[in-house]
Write a structure and sequence with these properties.
The structure is a homotrimer. With about 325 residues, the first copy, chain A, is mainly β. Chain A has a single domain (about 5-330), classed as Porin (Beta Barrel). Chain A has one helix at about 105-110; strands at about 5-20, 25-30, 40-50, 50-65, 70, 85-90, 95-100, 135-140, 150-155, 170-180, 180-195, 195-210, 215-225, 235-245, 250-260, 270-280, 285-295, 320-330. In chain A, a hairpin with a 2-residue loop joins strand 6 and strand 7. The interface between A and B is large, with 45 and 42 residues. Chains A, B, C: Keywords: Cell outer membrane, Ion transport, Membrane, Porin, Signal, Transmembrane, Transmembrane beta strand, Transport. Chains A, B, C: It is found in: Cell outer membrane. Chains A, B, C: It is a multi-pass membrane protein.
Chain lengths: ~325, ~325, ~325
Amino acid sequence: MAQSSVTLFGIVDAGVTYAKTSGGDSVYGLTNSGNATSRLGFRGVEDLGGGLKAGFWLEGAIQNDSGTGAGGGAAGPGFEFKRRSTVSLMGNFGEVRLGRELTAAYNTVSAYDVFGQVGIGQHFGFGVNGSPFRVSNMVSYYTPGMSGFKAGINYGFGETAGDSSFGRYIGGSVGYDNGPLSVGLGLEQQNDPSAAFDKEQSLGLGASYNFGVVKLAGLVRQQRNTPVGGGDKWKMNSASLGVTAPVGAAGEVRAAYNYYDVKSVDGKAHQLSLGYVHNLSKRTALYGTYAFLKNQKSETFSVSANGLGIATPAGGKNQNALTVGIRHAF
Amino acid sequence: MAQSSVTLFGIVDAGVTYAKTSGGDSVYGLTNSGNATSRLGFRGVEDLGGGLKAGFWLEGAIQNDSGTGAGGGAAGPGFEFKRRSTVSLMGNFGEVRLGRELTAAYNTVSAYDVFGQVGIGQHFGFGVNGSPFRVSNMVSYYTPGMSGFKAGINYGFGETAGDSSFGRYIGGSVGYDNGPLSVGLGLEQQNDPSAAFDKEQSLGLGASYNFGVVKLAGLVRQQRNTPVGGGDKWKMNSASLGVTAPVGAAGEVRAAYNYYDVKSVDGKAHQLSLGYVHNLSKRTALYGTYAFLKNQKSETFSVSANGLGIATPAGGKNQNALTVGIRHAF
Amino acid sequence: MAQSSVTLFGIVDAGVTYAKTSGGDSVYGLTNSGNATSRLGFRGVEDLGGGLKAGFWLEGAIQNDSGTGAGGGAAGPGFEFKRRSTVSLMGNFGEVRLGRELTAAYNTVSAYDVFGQVGIGQHFGFGVNGSPFRVSNMVSYYTPGMSGFKAGINYGFGETAGDSSFGRYIGGSVGYDNGPLSVGLGLEQQNDPSAAFDKEQSLGLGASYNFGVVKLAGLVRQQRNTPVGGGDKWKMNSASLGVTAPVGAAGEVRAAYNYYDVKSVDGKAHQLSLGYVHNLSKRTALYGTYAFLKNQKSETFSVSANGLGIATPAGGKNQNALTVGIRHAF
């Protein structure tokens, strides 16, 4: 009755990146995770019988340019399971998960970034000003698939003595995946994301349609932060419109336009991303990505590459960046 | 001749804990290791022929609420093999081990805590004021089982130039395990455990008897610390009396009374722990634990839960705590 | 077509070390990596078809006396893949690797140290004053074996904005391995290795000949550092001459004489190393190593053992050190 499996898995993705900021210096370097985030993980599922299953998932990021461990996005002081560390109970009712992982709100909407939230070409509108990618101390519930519909909800304890709402995260998503059409909506509220803000709230919507020859994908997102002590909310609108298309038996081209508008800053930012992935196998690919970022007026958005310091441009300055690399999964 | 095996193993245990200190704040949160310590490890044994075997054991703790690594009990800066990192030579003579691990003195006596030295229900008399759970830089010897008798001795180098006794740990245990009866005795001396003490010494005794319907277990322990510069020794007596009983095919109830008496503090502490474990399989269980801690007069003992800050009560104040969780081993 | 393998591998090596510095204190302790560096790693190769292969290699050091992780040589804050973290593409053309690893210059020449660059008996002339063992952010190319000839080249990005030469590493090696004869040459230039130096350059040559009854091995190396602001170069010459011989079916004796001469210091250092390795299997061995280090005049070279602080001797003072241990590979 108790069948089980434990899987060791991971990705090592490395590339060479060049970045140039208008009016600034250029920089070259070896970068990580240009096509998929470098990681090492251990996961398993146990069949408990009667349709019930238990599972665990431990996964940490790796900065393979230097060999250091890295937490969820930020560099960590040693290998840690900060990408995901959960234990689950699964059944016909869906899945209950305890631990740290990507939020459903982020995960569901960011899935419509055709650059997969990695490298210089990705949409940079997530994770800004206290909106989390991942949350610790969460109790989560995910529905089973129901004719293509699915939903998830995350509750993250603030763990503050005497004030259970301080630092609390609540978010969720609903999605529909059926045939060529996919739609997802995510919303969240993070209390006390920083000393400056009482509250961070975001709402995102994404969709894709696979025409076969090309697949179209897009997302829009709005984030509002409530300042401590009142006053105008900090607001950001961002959007991404992308397309992917197979080229021959092993290739895929990608292109995306990304838009960022922080209301308190004069000017918007526009990003154009172009990419090509050449699959050597299901697990291994060569890739190239080019990104152009245009800041208007006072805006100072920046591309970023894992493992290389790319200076944030001065207000209104542009950036060009190029990565060529290899991704190997195991 | 050289048969061998390498095993990847671990536990992910997560729960929701509520704790309330009299006259203080309550706190809620996601906690780890309520039923068994969350961990990841690698171990193996090689058959060298002629009855000789070599083995290794690398095991580190995981704080799965946040994904960080954690050393032996305390939070670490990244995943480390601080639970155990040893290499062994085994044969008819027993086992010689080099490295870091639980001491025999702690391991043998703490085995009679029916809450398994984890979670809010555990006996908190170990690991206080310089008495170690684990020691680094050890050379250890464990006898083979001899008609139920077994013994172990640990020598931990102080590694201090010019003074080989400074920081040195010496401890050992003897035990007897046969049929329903189990008895264990452990004693230790840790030199220079802190700036305040020249020496820490402890003696513990535990026993259990399995009546079938219920199993009774208990332990008593005394610790004496010699202050630097002389004066009265710091002394603590502690004890635990517990019972476990199977409930149906898959359940087990646990109850324990724990007693703590620090001689230099006016007043004692009493702890009552109640628990239920429901096994979904050999590897997976749901559990609930309730603990009530009563401090008398000036005493300030506290329950603790891995991954949640529970404030130490003011003198004489009580605590109530409850954890409900899931443990999954792989 | 896509055959693949993922291998979990490692070594746990522990011993007891005694060291005594003339005119100073003696120290005892449990040490790591006396015969081979303790480590844990994950590696794999995927056959891509058409003679092409992809591979990854993630490997970190372990300080098993205390369970901490350790980077390339130095203690790290948690387990990290600092020994090697690379992704490779391999074919008839050789191998292209991206990431962090040992440099070809170091690896090729140090291979002729009969004590394998571990423990108190090793040649200590490498890794001094900014000459790296390992380099991050590298693009490397290794030739296939060609009638015993092989070569490698490493380019390590400095990753400095506006100055692509700052911090850059360039090095390479050529080698010949055929029958009893093996020869290797390595050279390197590390820009800006420290605040004191603009440049570090080294050239090393090693060779060995296997006579069957004994194997003779030796190396010579010169390093030159260019000071910031000009002035005389810092120079070091070092050499090693060693011999290994099988003893019976399972044993091997080793002996080496090492020589160190830092030009700016009055006096040279001489080191005599003796060792015996008794193989219990291919993976497991008992070993003993003795080292005597003689500093002349003002020279202050020192033996070192992983996991034990051995004081650097005062000028002209000698050291004696002894390690007895066990190495177990998996």
